[in-house]
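Troubleshooting entry. The earlier prediction with iron/sulfur cluster gave an output that would not parse, so I re-checked the input for stray whitespace and re-submitted. Clean input:
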Amino acid sequence: MKKTTHELLVKRIIQMEARINACKRCSSAHHCFNTPSMGKGDLTPEILLVFQSQGNRRPEMNNYIEIRQMLKKEFDQERIYHTFLVRCQPQACFHIDDTEDMLVRHKAFYKKECQFNEPDCPGIPILPTSKEVVSCLPYLIEEIDILAPNTVILFGKRTAEFVLKAKGVLEEPMIPGFYKYNNRCIFTTVEENLFTREDAKKLTGFIAARQEDLA
Ligand code: SF4
């Protein structure tokens, strides 16, 4: 990629991330004490992975980097990027109900730990609502458009459903599934919290078989 094209790409990603950091579309984001989750990885990706939200994979599973490492190995491909359908992980908190109107989303609240000292609570990640998914989806579509990967992998039926609908595929997604959109190959696989090394191998085989069919 030419330097100027790369610089433009980085600039577009930085601008998008600034908008995400300032975004207040969802009411649950007012309760979010973490920074919104941004995409990570190679900025000229061959493969882009889409997970539902940051809290949808248990921390002891080394989170999302582990999936990227598994797929790098299986695909023998370094250029992999991962991102999220919903950037602000909603968290259940028993304090929130009492103080709902007092909390505002502000950079000062972006901390890994809860601002309430007693009792100490890291927050309980919960599933984003459909409204939150729809509010956040434009950022993902924009990110895919900027990074222009050849292959997109959607983790889990819910992520697949929303992203494919945005691309005009209205029927229920197949898992595993293969879709072609604007010369881009879109694959579906199991949800990130269930994804294992075995799934990585199966997915690699599934993708290789579809690519052979297309050749
Ligand atoms: S989840 Fe997405 S749309 Fe909602 S406030 Fe966060 S960045 Fe904005």
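This one parsed fine. The longest helix spans residues 3-22.
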